[in-house]
């Protein structure tokens, strides 16, 4: 399937758009990890476009990404991300997917910090048809800029959720992930699918971590299952 890619403006926001040539009715909002809209995330967007999704990617740091900024410097920007501001940006992108881009359904997939926001956005916006959260960065105790409790709010998600957790996650404790699992499985609506990878590390989906075999193996097993899940969300 041939695809079209471009950088687009959505109000004051910039976003990366990848879609099948001529568009499609099935949308996907991508919420990147610390890389921002770097090469890895664009490759995922392009792959999803090749599977029939109109894919729109949130620009985490408003222009900064691993294409032009070191990971260390991007890490310094994390404290400036406020939950309500970020969710407003993501809602604007979802509006664009379901409005001007002509999608009749849209899911969300996020990695690390984006995984946490995927849960928060789905808790707030029930238009989403499905949620994928790769190693969501839900810290305990929460940093000062995390105003919302992603675990507690996950009970409000009505869409199906797929969450991937690496057993050797040094950022998200086993106890915190257990609380998230309990919250998701307490929902009266929305299936929960869990991927658990012994030995894998936080951020295992990032190709920069694939020099460690357990991370590369975890992603190689995880990604096809994720794609199959996403295919069920097509409008």
UniProtKB/TrEMBL annotation:
<dbReference type="InterPro" id="IPR002925">
    <property type="entry name" value="Dienelactn_hydro"/>
</dbReference>
<keyword id="KW-0378">Hydrolase</keyword>
<dbReference type="GO" id="GO:0016787">
    <property type="term" value="F:hydrolase activity"/>
</dbReference>
<dbReference type="Pfam" id="PF01738">
    <property type="entry name" value="DLH"/>
</dbReference>
<feature type="domain" description="Dienelactone hydrolase">
    <location>
        <begin position="14"/>
        <end position="232"/>
    </location>
</feature>
<protein>
    <submittedName>
        <fullName>Dienelactone hydrolase family protein</fullName>
    </submittedName>
</protein>
<dbReference type="InterPro" id="IPR051049">
    <property type="entry name" value="Dienelactone_hydrolase-like"/>
</dbReference>
<dbReference type="InterPro" id="IPR029058">
    <property type="entry name" value="AB_hydrolase_fold"/>
</dbReference>
């Amino acid at each position: 399937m041939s695809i079209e890619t471009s950088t687009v403006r959505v109000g004051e926001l910039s976003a990366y758009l990848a879609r099948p040539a001529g568009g499609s009715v099935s949308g996907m909002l991508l919420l990147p990890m610390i890389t921002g809209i770097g090469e890895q995330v664009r490759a995922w967007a392009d792959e999803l476009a090749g599977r029939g999704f109109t894919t729109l990617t949130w620009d985490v740091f408003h222009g900064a990404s691993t294409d032009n900024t070191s990971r260390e410097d991007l890490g310094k920007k994390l404290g400036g991300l406020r939950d309500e501001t970020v969710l407003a940006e993501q809602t604007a992108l979802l509006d664009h997917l379901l409005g001007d881009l002509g999608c009749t359904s849209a899911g969300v997939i996020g990695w690390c910090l984006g995984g946490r926001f995927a849960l928060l956005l789905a808790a707030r916006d029930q238009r989403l048809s499905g949620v994928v959260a790769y190693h969501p960065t839900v810290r305990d105790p929460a940093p000062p800029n995390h105003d919302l409790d992603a675990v507690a709010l996950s009970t409000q998600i009505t869409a199906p959720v797929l969450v991937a957790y690496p057993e050797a996650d040094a950022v998200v404790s086993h106890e915190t992930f257990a609380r998230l699992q309990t919250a998701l499985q307490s929902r009266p609506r929305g299936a929960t699918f869990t991927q658990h990878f012994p030995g894998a590390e936080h951020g295992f989906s990032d190709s920069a971590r694939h020099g460690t075999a357990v991370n590369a193996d975890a992603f190689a097993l995880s990604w096809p299952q994720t794609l199959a899940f996403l295919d069920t969300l097509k409008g």
